[in-house]
UniProtKB/TrEMBL annotation:
Catalytic activity annotation: L-alanine + NAD(+) + H2O = pyruvate + NH4(+) + NADH + H(+)
InterPro entries from the UniProt entry: Ala_DH, Ala_DH/PNT_CS2, AlaDH/PNT_N, AlaDH/PNT_NAD(H)-bd, NAD(P)-bd_dom_sf
One Pfam entry name: AlaDh_PNT_N
Alanine dehydrogenase/pyridine nucleotide transhydrogenase NAD(H)-binding domain boundaries: 149-297
Name under which the protein is recorded: Alanine dehydrogenase
Broad class of enzyme this protein falls into: oxidoreductase
Organism: Chromohalobacter israelensis (strain ATCC BAA-138 / DSM 3043 / CIP 106854 / NCIMB 13768 / 1H11)
GO terms classed as biological process: L-alanine catabolic process
Binding site for substrate: R15, K75
Amino acid sequence: MKIAVPKEIKNHEYRVALTPSVVRELAARGHTVAVQASAGEGAGFPDAEYAAAGARIEQDLDALWDNAELIVKVKEPQPEEVKRLKPGHTLFTYLHLAAEESLTRGLMDSEATCIAYETITDDQGGLPLLAPMSRVAGRMAIQAGAHSLEKAQGGAGILIPGVPGVAPAKVTVIGGGVVGENAARMALGLGAEVTVLDKSLARLEVLDHRYQGRLNTVYSTADALETAVRESDIVVGAVLVPGAQAPKLITRDMLADMRPGSVLVDVAIDQGGCFETSRATTHADPTYVVDGVVHYCVANMPGAVARTSTQALTNATLPFVLALADKGWQGALAEDPHFLEGLNVHAGRITHPAVAKAFALEAVDPRTLLS
Ligand SMILES: NC(=O)C1=CN([C@@H]2O[C@H](COP(=O)(O)OP(=O)(O)OC[C@H]3O[C@@H](n4cnc5c(N)ncnc54)[C@H](O)[C@@H]3O)[C@@H](O)[C@H]2O)C=CC1
Ligand SMILES: CC(=O)C(=O)O
Ligand SMILES: [Mg+2]
């Protein structure tokens, strides 16, 4: 299989889709890997390491894309990348299509086969290729929130742990999945008073058991949300309905009840965000203020810690990349129903029901595409 690894071009995105170690595994199985020159530099992987692992370092962007059968990326394709996709290409990357109709239409028009990391499932009901980056983003959410609470950032001037004689900050996490648990864990580590809301009682039970009373777990209702948000210094948005647009759980009206300088960190922004006032920001300009409340809504948080994130992401993607390379997309997806859930677009048709629903389109059953 001819595999291409483009350099990521989203704002301040320094991750790379394959490490030299993964290239070595692919090359050993007889696959050809072309890596765009300097693609790994931001994550600390120089071209020389890729070349030593068996990759061809490609300077010519047209040649990189035109000669590829499988394109492996990190972030959703940017408009200039969408233009390069064509029938016969298989694209394997994060897509988050329900948040972006123009990208969805662009991928349909390309007629390429597009497999999303974030909708692949596992036997435990998890999302194995989203989880590593959710762990990173959840942990970062508290760093981002702590920084945003500083006066110079528009925050209320609150130090998360407080000091003797001064109470710590109150942190509320909405959604107690992978992002939510990692955010809660960081906030607890800093000495915050932490509350996690979720609609899944089973999930709240797991958290309650795991944190042995150090964490408040609250079933998520409109009342509970209003109360928690009113009292919080930092609110982390961490809900997910896989493949779908995030539900808007905090409305603009509710901001009026928050203290000025409080902070919303909307990690769910890559699925459209769970606060009504959220809009995607970049690492170059991560925050803005609405009604006195600081919003941090960076859609590629893990890109800022590219070394850690690249290693964590590729640990998880490796078996899937090997399967695609060895068997082609039809062979790999036919053998693994969890992998098949990753298929979002093929030959101009949407294949994931939640994405189709977001734009009132018809979804084709991906199982019918495998023969
Ligand atoms: N901004 C960024 O850089 C990154 C964003 N993310 C995003 O973070 C979000 C969360 O991801 P994960 O934690 O991995 O998902 P997850 O599936 O592990 O957890 C989501 C949780 O939300 C809960 N939930 C769903 N609807 C809810 C509602 N209405 N009220 C309360 N809880 C609700 C679920 O029960 C579940 O426990 C996703 O949108 C993901 O794409 C992940 C990594 C990086
Ligand atoms: C999951 C995601 O959007 C990211 O890692 O950037
Ligand atoms: Mg995006």
